[in-house]
Specification:
Pathway: Cell wall biogenesis; peptidoglycan biosynthesis. The chain contains seven helices and twelve strands. With about 240 residues, it is an alpha/beta fold.
């Protein structure tokens, strides 16, 4: 890996890649390149070693079996843990979000997570499907969250994780909070892809990874149009 370019890793696309989550990789790379930031992207499959020297790691959603397998292999590999200890940023979506916690359920069986976020997940009485929106933790300085959720889990936060957002529509973690964050780790149930609907989150990851206080503005006309349409669709008639 280059030591000069911004390095972005998409974790296990062969196991965790639903609802266009690969779009998060494309959007991050495009927003970096548009600002003249050299970027290298890597798609690391589950039969490959996880590099521990990248700047941003992305984990997508997936079904129960692949989720459990991904967790087992990431625990055994250890590369993601090492990267986070060295200051890497992480964006995790849905199943990828759950497996960063202490435990989650897959096919009715409790599975060990990576323990990188102080959360644990179990099964809800109903499936959460539809538009998801919320007010993001003001400490992150971001506009409201928008996304699409489709999951059967309910996620509970410990004292060392903060909610990413307070739910204003949809279910998220439990109908009250959505996602979690700690340090440079973000987790959310938001598909869409998440960064297409929330480009400010992409820019937050870029700032964390480059050390920049500010980034040059981009023309987000189409992103704002999409956000407006999805927020309108989430409001009951």
């Amino acid at each position: 890996m280059s030591t000069e370019a911004l390095r972005i890793v998409w974790i296990y696309p062969d196991l965790l890649s639903t609802y266009g989550d690969r779009g998060n990789l494309l959007i991050l790379a495009a927003r970096a390149a548009a600002r003249g930031i050299p970027v290298e992207t890597y798609e690391v499959r589950s039969d490959q070693r996880m590099p521990n020297s990248a700047d941003i790691y992305l984990i997508g959603g997936g079904e129960d079996g692949p989720q459990a397998l991904a967790s087992q292999r990431l625990i055994a590999d250890g590369g993601l843990h090492q990267a986070i200890q060295q200051g890497a940023s992480v964006l995790s979506i849905c199943a990828g979000y759950q497996l960063l916690g202490h435990s989650f359920f897959a096919k009715g069986v409790q599975c060990a997570g990576l323990g990188l976020l102080d959360i644990h997940s179990d099964r809800g009485e109903t499936r959460a499907v539809g538009e998801l929106r919320g007010d993001i933790d003001p400490r992150l300085g971001l506009p409201p969250l928008t996304g699409f959720e489709n999951h059967g889990g309910r996620t509970h936060l410990g004292q060392h994780a903060a909610p990413l957002a307070r739910v204003t529509g949809g279910i998220g973690n439990d109908g009250q909070t959505e996602g979690a964050w700690a340090g440079k780790i973000l987790g959310t149930y938001s598909h869409g892809p998440a960064l297409a609907r929330n480009p400010a989150i992409a820019d937050l990851l870029l700032k964390w990874s480059t050390g920049a206080d500010r980034l040059a503005p981009l023309d987000d006309t189409w992103s704002e149009k999409l956000r407006g349409e999805r927020f309108a669709a989430a409001i009951p008639a």
